Structures are given as structure tokens and as C-alpha cells.
Amino acid sequence: MPRRVRLLRKATRIVEEEIKRLRPFQALAVLLNDKATGIRKGKRSFGNIIVIRSVESKDAMKASVTRVPWPVLEKIRDRIIKDIPEVVKVLFDITPKPPSTIEFI
Length: 105
Prior knowledge:
Blueprint: H1 3-19, E1 26-40, E2 43-56, E3 64-65, H2 70-83, E4 87-92
Parallel strand pairs: 2-4
Antiparallel strand pairs: 1-2, 2-3
Helix pairs in contact: 1-2
InterPro entries: GMP_synth_C
Keywords: ATP-binding, GMP biosynthesis, Ligase, Nucleotide-binding, Purine biosynthesis
Pfam families: GMP_synt_C
């Protein structure tokens, strides 16, 4: 299995485990193609970026962002950074649909 697929599956599992009690319409992790500068063990490193996306909807035609409590977001961030050392940045997408779509391409 390709490395990026393994990384994304780990991140998705973490997001789903931590957000499931909120019962969103859809929650996912997105692995961006871009890299970010981070610091690991006191040295500069270039690593991956994960975006957390969680939305509420009735029909997928319109969606609002799930109001994830800050402590839950911090726990997701901490788990992703600890369990997936290749990730140096975790973002939370707050864009509704429309204008955005739920998924990333």
C-alpha cells in the first residue's frame, strides 16, 4: 500500500474516532499535496498537512460546519501529530457548502 494512503487512513481513523460522538453527516481527513515547514527534535523538517473536515447536512446539497469543541480539535491534532510523525500541520476547514463542496479533490 502506498505511503500516502497509509498516512491518510491513519488520520481518517483518528478523526472518525474523536468526532463520532458528535454524529456529523460526514467527517474526514484530507492529506494535502503541499508540504509545511515544522520542527521535529529541535530541527527544521518538511512534512505533510492534514485538513479536518466535518459537516452537518440533511441532503448533501447544503452543509454547515460541525461545531467541534476546541478540546476535541486539540485531541485530534495531538493524536495525529504523535501517531503520524510525517505530519507537521493540522488544519480545520470551516467553509460551508456552498460555496465549497464537502469533499476535496
